[in-house]
Design a protein that fits this description.
The chain is α+β, with helices and mostly antiparallel strands. The chain has 4 domains: 74 residues; 96 residues, PAS domain (Beta-Lactamase, 2-Layer Sandwich), CATH 3.30.450; 66 residues, Helix Hairpins (Orthogonal Bundle); 146 residues, 2-Layer Sandwich (Heat Shock Protein 90), CATH 3.30.565. It is 52% helix and 19% strand. It has 11 helices and 12 strands. The chain has a 5-stranded antiparallel β-sheet, with helices on both faces. The protein has a 5-stranded mixed β-sheet with strand order 7-9-10-12-11, with helices on one face. Strand 9 and strand 10 form a beta hairpin. Helix 6 packs antiparallel against helix 7 and helix 9 packs antiparallel against helix 11. It is rod-shaped. It starts with a helix and ends with a strand. Bound molecules: adenosine-5'-diphosphate and magnesium ion. The site of magnesium ion has 5 residues, from helix 9.
């Protein structure tokens, strides 16, 4: 553009100079003899200059037309077929450009394919993936990372996603070449975060520690594992506490007997209490073992087809002797289920046990068996007992939780019965319903999918 303006100026300026030149000559020409020659010379120079200028203009115009034609031909070189009119002299040059164009197109396609593949893989990853440069600026993030930290985090500093000192330290250490791992908490979820340095030219050796180009950060959702670990820690603490109580009584009583501090009359009573506490210990240990089996997925899985009614009758029979004045009834329908006999036995036992234990004089426990649909049955155990206060409803299925502590302890409860019931129901992909009103009674309904 600038060149064109410059040329236009020259084209306008040159004739002007020439006209000025001629005008000046005429001004000096006064008809004297010597001056005639000067005038002729001036006219000749003007004509030569005008012709030269004309030739230049025509040459310029023709040259431009020709180059335009050539560049147009080069611009329009096709990839597959070359059907554009082109000068023969330009053919080798055009051929090379054509090949280069094809190469570039192929490379671009290959790169686009690779980016698409990487995006598809990272996009479907459950883990959050973030790539940062050595200044801590987020270069890219996958879908999961966007879900965790929000959209539009690209081009922001990594502090934007977590301001924890530990996190920032880990990023800095990783930029310095160290692999790091830590846990962070966000929106009630716990993530294990892995930091890996990215080196220049993809090297990972120790020598390249100073050439870190950036960091790959991976966020793995560890909420469930974290919860399970916490539950296990609490369980262990509770188990120790629960075992300690009867053992302390047993130790104290037996020590008194051993040291001769108990009178002859007391010994019989002490022995009775030792037997009672030992029994309590055994029940507790039995329940703990069962729950640990569930936790470790070791629960027995042998499945048999059996008559549920018959099994319920057998379980009820074990209560007849120590149910006192409480009456146990069995209603509903008789049908076969395919399940683990021992597990269903335990489920029934724990529910009926509660119905009897937390009942009143002359109370009633009703066990009802219903076939809801093919493969789904309902076991409902209701009683006319003391009931459970509403505030305890969400907790009674937790391990070691006792709504009525004194009564549960008196009746030898471990606080594990309902959590065993919950485990068994979950094992059969079932659901649990609790209806209870203080002073009225309790109903626990278990829906079990047994096929
Ligand atoms: N049928 C029921 N009636 C009243 N309270 C109940 C009943 N079933 C369970 N509970 C309450 O729920 C708590 C947890 O029950 P469970 O897990 O079986 O433990 P426990 O060994 O104490 O019976 C009990 O301590 C008791 O307070
Ligand atoms: Mg119980």
């Amino acid at each position: 553009m600038r060149k064109r303006i410059f040329l236009s100026i020259i084209w306008v300026a040159l004739p002007c100079i020439l006209i000025l030149f001629v005008a000046l000559i005429y001004m000096f020409y006064d008809g004297t003899e010597g001056n005639e020659l000067v005038a002729y010379l001036a006219v000749a120079i003007t004509i030569v200059a005008a012709v030269t200028l004309l030739v230049l203009i025509i040459a310029n115009y023709t040259a431009r037309k020709m180059t335009d034609k050539i560049t147009a031909s080069l611009e329009n070189i096709g990839f597959k077929e070359r059907n554009t009119a082109i000068y023969d002299e330009m053919m080798p040059f055009a051929g090379r450009i054509d090949r280069q164009k094809q190469n570039i197109r192929a490379r671009i396609e290959e790169l686009t394919d690779r980016t698409d593949t990487i995006e598809t893989i990272t996009g479907s990853m459950q883990e959050g993936l973030i790539l940062i440069d050595s200044d801590g600026t987020i270069l890219s993030a996958n879908n999961s990372a966007h879900q965790i930290f929000g959209e539009n985090i690209e081009n922001k500093n990594v502090v934007h996603i977590c301001r924890d000192d530990d996190f920032i330290n880990a990023v800095n250490k990783c930029i310095a070449g160290e692999n790091e791992e830590m846990q962070i908490q966000r929106d009630e979820r716990v993530y294990t975060v892995f930091f890996s340095p990215v080196y220049t030219n993809g090297h990972t050796s120790e020598n390249n520690k100073n050439n870190t180009r950036g960091v790959v950060i991976l966020f793995h959702d560890a909420t469930e594992r974290h919860r399970a670990e916490k539950q296990r820690r609490e369980f262990t603490a509770n188990v120790s506490h629960e075992l300690k109580t009867p053992l302390t009584t047993i130790t104290a009583l037996s020590e008194m007997i051993a040291q001769g501090m108990a009178r002859q009359d007391d010994i019989r009573e002490f022995a009775g209490r030792i037997t009672e506490q030992s029994g309590r210990l055994l029940v507790l240990i039995d329940d703990i073992i069962r729950l640990s089996e569930f936790d470790e997925g070791k629960a027995r899985r042998e499945v048999t087809i059996f008559d549920l009614w018959e099994l319920a009758e057998t379980v009820i029979k074990t209560f007849r002797d120590n149910a006192g004045s409480v009456e146990i009834l069995l209603t509903g329908e008789r049908f076969d289920i395919s399940a683990n006999n021992r597990m269903i036995d335990e489920l029934l036992y724990n529910l009926i046990d509660n119905g009897v234990k937390y009942n009143n004089e002359n109370g009633k426990v009703t066990v009802e068996l219903t076939r809801v649909e093919n493969g789904l049955c309902k076991i409902s155990v209701s009683d006319t007992g003391i009931g459970i206060k509403e505030e305890h409803h969400p907790h009674v299925f937790e391990r070691f939780y006792r709504a009525e502590k004194s009564r549960s302890k008196k009746t030898g409860g471990t606080g594990l019965g309902l959590s065993i019931v919950k485990h068994i129901t979950e094992y059969y992909n079932g659901t649990l319903e609790l209806e209870s009103a203080e002073g009225v009674g309790t109903t626990v309904k278990c829906y079990l999918r047994y096929m």
